[in-house]
Amino acid sequence: MVETGHFALVLAFAMALVQSVVPITGARTGDERLMAVGAPAAIACFLLTALSFAALVTAYVQSDFSVVNVWENSHSLQPLIYKITGTWGNHEGSMLLWVLILTLFGSLVALFGRNLPPSLKATVLSVQGWIGAAFFLFILTTSNPFTRLIPAPIEGRELNPILQDMGLAVHPPLLYLGYVGFSISFSFAVAALIEGRIDAAWARWVRPWTLLAWLCLTGGISMGSYWAYYELGWGGFWFWDPVENASFMPWLAGTALLHSALVMEKRSALKIWTILLAILTFSFSLLGTFLVRSGVLTSVHAFATDPSRGIFILCILTLFIGGSFALFALRSNALVSGGLFHPISREGALVLNNLFLTTAAATVLVGTLYPLAVEALSKDRISVGAPFFELTFVPLMVPLLLAVPFGPMLAWKRGDLYAAGQRLFAAFACALLIGICVLLFVDRTAVLAACGIGLAAWLLLGALTDLVLRSGIGSVPAYVAWRRLVGLPRSVFGTALAHMGLGLTLLGIVSVTTFQGEKIVALNPGENLTVSGYVLHFEGMKAGQGPNFTESRGVFDIMSSGGASLGKIVSSKRFFPARQTPTTEAGIRTFGLSQLYVSLGDPDASGAMVVRAWWKPLVLLIWLGGVVMMLGAATSLFDRRLRVGAPSRRRKAASKLAESPS
Length: 662
Known about the structure:
Layout: H1 2-29, H2 32-35, H3 38-61, H4 68-73, H5 80-85, H6 91-112, H7 118-142, H8 167-195, H9 200-231, H10 242-267, H11 271-293, H12 307-331, H13 346-378, H14 386-403, H15 417-423, H16 425-441, H17 447-471, H18 478-487, H19 490-515, E1 517-523, E2 528-531, E3 534-545, E4 550-560, E5 565-576, E6 581-585, E7 587-591, E8 594-603, E9 609-616, H20 620-637, H21 646-659
Antiparallel strand pairs: 1-9, 2-3, 3-4, 4-5, 5-6, 7-8, 8-9
Helix pairs in contact: 1-3, 1-7, 3-6, 6-7, 6-8, 7-8, 7-12, 8-9, 8-11, 9-10, 9-20, 10-11, 10-13, 11-12, 13-14, 16-17, 17-18, 17-19, 19-20
């Protein structure tokens, strides 16, 4: 099975070469037979890669330690789920998952892009083939997951204990679906540059793929944040780690791309800018791949790799990013710039959105790469942490969030800002009242927190206001309003949900960073710890045994300030003998949308256990907001106006109507 997987990987590389050369040759020469090769080649490439990936998973499940990759990242005592997730819990396996998703998207374009112009479809599939061929070559030459180890060891070295968590089953696949999903937008952009033609139909074809990639990347970032929160025992949800930033940059650029493509689809404007954003978004994805796998970063997220891998990925990075920008510079003059619009319009609001998002992405890029540049030039090591990003990124986001509710209220081409403000007056008044109430009744010194919570309420109420006005609630009979509400395009609901999710996340961030309580004390059994009105009674430490680890569990009784029992919370320290690695497992107890979080330290000199406890108000809103944003994207995907075939069906229906006798 291992040799079958390796051979399938070689065949997939050969098929990617066919996919990269034959269809575009047909598109340039007008040969329909050559163009038709692209779709079956893309599907075959995906099937071969899937076979290769299945072979690696089989080796992990069977604990085949004759495979170096399995020996380094698995153990016979590991639970089955961690054997499977261990497949992509390392560099080689994760790269195989990367190209599996890449070929999956290529095959989806082949299957569902039947209404695309043949030359455009052939060129898009060829560009996907170029990317696939480059990464297949990278895997086969520097990162082969099927390398054998002779003689085979009796036992494996085990997966990194930090990665032995259900979060690994969800976080990397979702993140890669987002990273790699933007390759389709990139391929469409390069294809448009090669053909020298771009129109509103192009934006209509690109938007669903971009929306799907954005949905998955949102889920991947949210899941990664929650995994770091509960698994690493540090109590935070975002560290501005360089690898976290590497996933955040394509999310910011992808968000801008979504809004820009909407302007292009509706008004045939921002054509050149949309092409540039499509290239930039995937460039950030490739940059993230380089940062994680080049060895230039030290992070819990990064894979330790040898320099040859980093140089190879840097060459891929230079080839695709440099090549696409060079092509853009050469061909952008051949593209028609598109329609004009008044600055006060929905297009203008979306342009403002793009400016802030791309500037924010540039800020994160500078903060991420600046320490690497300083070290490369002067050998000095510096770190750029949260203070830098809070002083640069946050001020860019505040005016953007203030402007978000205005966008849907403005008309296309020329809008009325005063009228939009009148429609949003009630939402603004309620948000202002909420901020004042926080300041008066929660904490009179927390001015910034009151402003942040008011801003979150502004986003939530602004999204609801859009739905209320569109359906006529309060101005027409209830049954009419209901019919209007149900009949609204799904993209309208998707937009409202995405903006509401943003508001929920902001509300969670402001609440937990401002109002959380924290205590660090050394406790002996029988002693108490009080944090934010909750009393933790330390019962003591108890020994435990897992399938491949031993643990020492700290058990706490939770009581209210009045003495009522609220249950127990257990935090533990685990030791994995195979890796000789300790880990800390935080104890978390949820109360509504808030959590009590307990993490164990080491015993002090007297033998008392150091305990760190937090009360985190509304912390779950941070990730609930991400889920709501994903739901909004999924809702928009079901809008028939985003279906690739819909325009074609409308044209056919219109032509039949024109041909019918009057």
